[in-house]
Each structure stands twice: as C-alpha cells, then as structure tokens.
Amino acid sequence: MKEINPSITKDVILPVDYWENEFREGWKNGLYPNPYLLDFLKKYELQIGPKILDVGSGDGRHLLPLARLGYQATGLELTEAGIMASEQKLNSFSAQVKLIKGDFHNIPFVNESFDSVISIQALHYNNWSGACQSFSEIIRVLKTTGLFFFRARSDKGHWRLSDQQIIDKGITRVENRNTGFTVMVHDYTLEELQELAAANKAKIIQAIDDDYSGKPGEWNVIFKKIRK
C-alpha cells in the first residue's frame, strides 16, 4: 500500500457522493439480504425484541425482510437516494418503517431507544476514531442486554494494491473506486472488535470472519450490551 499525508485522517471521508450515485443507479438491484443476518433473526428471535435500528440502511435491502417479519424497524441512512430507494421497496407494506437521514457518528435518538441494532457493510467507512465514536453511539441507543449484529470488513480480506494506507491505528486506507469517487475504509481486527466491546460495556457472542465464500474478509459479529 502507498502511504499518504496523515492530515487526511483528521476527518473521516464519509462516502456520501459515492453512495448517492450508486443508489441512483440502482446499486446491483439491491442484492439480497445478508444470510448471517437472517440466521441472527432466526436464532435470536426471542431476544431481539420488536424495535430494531438499521444503521446505514442504504437502499432498504434489510429493512424489507424486517418489515415482512413484523419488526418495528427504523433505518438510519446517510443519503437521499438510499432513502428514496427504501421508500420504493417498502411502498407495498403496511408496516410502519421509519427512515431517518443521518450518520453513525451522531445517532439522533435518546439512550436505550432500541431493543436491537444491525449495521451491515457500513461501519467500515471510518477511521479508527470514527469507529470508536460509531460503536459508542450504537451501544448508547441500544437497551441493556440488547443485541447488535455487525458486518464489516476484516483485516484478513484482500484489497487492491493501489489502495493508499493512512497513518492510523490498524488498517485504514483510501479506496479509489472505478466510478471516480474516493472512500475511506477501516479493516477491523478481532482484537479491535474486542477492544470496542470492552470500551462500550458489551461482549461478543459471535465472531465469524466470512465473505460468503468460506474465505475471511468480512466480519459477522453479534455484540450484547451488558451494562448501561
């Protein structure tokens, strides 16, 4: 990786323009729900509770199965295009799904607002300080004993050799997407996830590194908040 000026780490490069463009273009037609999330919803059905927050809800591909299952779901999304795409998906459902525009560094809800939280392929768009802030905010709005399902990049994944390494804790880098946009990504180690759990009075009850093909590259982690 190529090293760049460390001054870029003062602020997280949130990829707003990139995702606005992707969702306007129909981003892979919404893909499919994360199979590890579906396993989580099945295995922990009696513990999840009715109120779920999806942090970085994107085009609504996970809000849709939550609505079908009858959860009181709220989507927190950075982009207008993602919110519009979610609304289109959810139009045919009578379930009340709330869509809120905002980011994961300052979640606009009071303490312990949700029984469970999910975040899928969103929180790796961070540097380390941004990751710490994001986790703190998520655990803050999660009820005690509530569950947090987290999927994000791991340090075992493959990245392009052209990516530029940022001077930061762990592996933080800048990806130059082929659409001409630049995004910041942090690849989490298991030790970092354990550190985030301990710092936020939570514990890890599942940690699987699998990119869907049986190879490492994407964490599928369940945290449980153990104290206020």
Q: How does this structure look, described?
A:
The protein is an alpha/beta fold and 228 residues long. The protein has a single domain, classed as Rossmann fold (3-Layer(aba) Sandwich). 28% of the residues lie in helices and 29% in strands. It has a seven-stranded mixed beta sheet, with helices on both faces. The protein has a four-stranded mixed beta sheet with strand order 1-7-8-9, with no helix packed on it. Helix 1 (16-24) packs parallel to helix 5 (80-90).
CATH fold call: Rossmann fold
Give the overall silhouette: globular
Structural class: alpha/beta
CATH architecture label: 3-Layer(aba) Sandwich
* Residue-averaged pLDDT: 88
Strand order of the largest sheet: 4-3-2-5-6-11-10
Q: Give helix and strand order, one letter per element, not per position.
A: EHHHEHEHEEHEEEEHEE
How helix-rich are the residues, as a percent range? 25-40%
* Biggest sheet statistics: 7 strands, mixed
Assembly classification: single chain
Count of domain modules: 1
What percent strand? Answer: 25-35%
The CATH homologous superfamily corresponds to: Vaccinia Virus protein VP39
Number of helices: 7
| Overall CATH class | Alpha Beta
* Record field, number of beta strands: 11
Rg from Cα: 17 Å
Spatial separation of the terminal alpha carbons: 40 Å
- Catalogue the unreliable spans: none
